[in-house]
TrEMBL record:
Organism: Sphaerotilus natans subsp. natans DSM 6575
Protein name: TRAP transporter small permease protein
TM helices/strands, residue ranges: 35-50, 70-92, 112-133
An example molecular function term from Gene Ontology annotations: transmembrane transporter activity
Quaternary data: The complex comprises the extracytoplasmic solute receptor protein and the two transmembrane proteins.
Length: 169
């Protein structure tokens, strides 16, 4: 993702400099930077899924007992797997449809653009299946049964850690 971001910065910044200083530009810059942004976004979503970094709320689930939390987590993971399957089938269909279509500036196959959705769905599906199997095996601690925390809870937790660290010193 860092390499994709660096390439985007070079393409866009280089194009801006060329446009305003030399009255020219890199024709392919806009198209490639858009494609790189889409790939970076999908790969970032995979990383966030792996780290449970997506936004959410635990107002209801946090009040349930262990069994209720497990049931809700399994339902959520199955729903995410279903949506991932929908994305995979749709993205794969777009890859097939656009495989022979050339991008207007670069001439690259537009299928490469839609392949980002396929890569996201495959990687996310593997992560979700692994999480679901771990949930069903009963190897999750009580803290792991709730995948998100409210932003206020995180702020209170960080403040408590700082207060505890200050009290120790």
């Amino acid at each position: 993702m860092g390499l994709l971001l660096a390439a985007m910065v070079v393409l866009v910044f280089g194009n801006v400099v060329l446009r305003y200083v030399f009255n020219s530009g890199i024709t392919i810059s806009e198209e490639l930077s858009r494609w790189l942004f889409v790939w970076m976004t999908f790969l970032g979503a995979v990383v966030a899924l792996k780290d449970n970094g997506h936004l959410g709320t635990d107002m209801l689930v946090g009040q349930l007992g262990r069994s209720g939390k497990i049931v809700c987590l399994v339902i959520a993971q199955l729903a995410m797997l279903f949506v991932t399957w929908l994305l995979l089938s749709g993205a794969w269909a777009q890859v097939q449809i656009n495989r022979e279509v050339e991008a207007p500036v670069s001439g690259l196959s537009v299928g490469w653009f839609y392949l980002s959705g396929v890569v996201f769905a495959v990687l996310s599906g593997l992560i979700l299946v692994g999480q679901l199997l771990r949930t069903l095996s009963g190897r999750l601690s009580d803290d792991e049964l709730v995948l998100v925390q409210e932003s206020e809870d995180l702020a209170q937790l960080e403040a408590a850690h700082k207060d505890a660290a200050a009290a120790r010193h």
